[in-house]
Write a structure and sequence with these properties.
By secondary structure, this protein is mainly alpha-helical. The chain is built from six helices and two strands.
Length: 167
């Protein structure tokens, strides 16, 4: 059983690393488009008409592609000042409680994302701006990213549980 769990953990870590690398590529592409758009705007008074919309979609995707990786690296915002004054056992307890809150909120976000995606697919809702694309393509990243975030939050909470003395 430990081998299976270890394998699943490695596969999961590979998946969130892969999503993070996609996010990195997206950041670079977004940076290049924004710089090119700014250069065009100030040099020839032109613009890349699709740049703003692409930036909006990219920011949504970046958030959900990198969230689980960032949680694994302990890079999310937290109250370090408060945690530094606590004993390790109390830190673990606080992290455990924060993990429960994170899991509940991510499960809610996942459920909302799934329901919204399904609704947009069934209703054939289109996003009509510069691009005309099915809206589910834009929002499908919400349940996908939330799914990985929930699993990473469970892993984090389990580790806090072990530090509390659980077996």
């Amino acid at each position: 059983m430990k081998k299976v769990i270890g394998l699943l953990d490695r596969v999961f870590n590979y998946c969130i690393d892969y999503l993070f690398h996609i996010a990195c590529i997206l950041v670079i592409a977004l940076m290049l488009v924004v710089v090119a758009d700014a250069l065009l705007k100030f040099s020839v008074r032109g613009t890349i008409t699709w740049a703003f919309e692409a930036a909006e979609y990219s920011l949504l995707y970046l958030t959900f592609l990198a969230a689980a990786w960032l949680l694994r690296k302990d890079g999310h915002v937290k109250l370090d000042v408060l945690l530094n004054f606590l004993k390790p056992k109390h830190q673990a307890y606080l992290n455990f409680v924060a993990g429960i809150i994170l899991i509940v909120s991510c499960i809610a976000l996942f459920c909302y994302g799934v329901l919204s995606t399904i609704d947009n697919i069934q209703s054939n809702v289109m996003s009509v701006r510069f691009y005309t694309i099915p809206k589910f393509i834009i929002i499908i990243i919400i349940p996908v990213g939330s799914f990985f975030l929930v699993i990473q939050a469970f892993k984090r909470m389990y580790n806090s549980f072990l530090r509390l003395g659980g077996h």
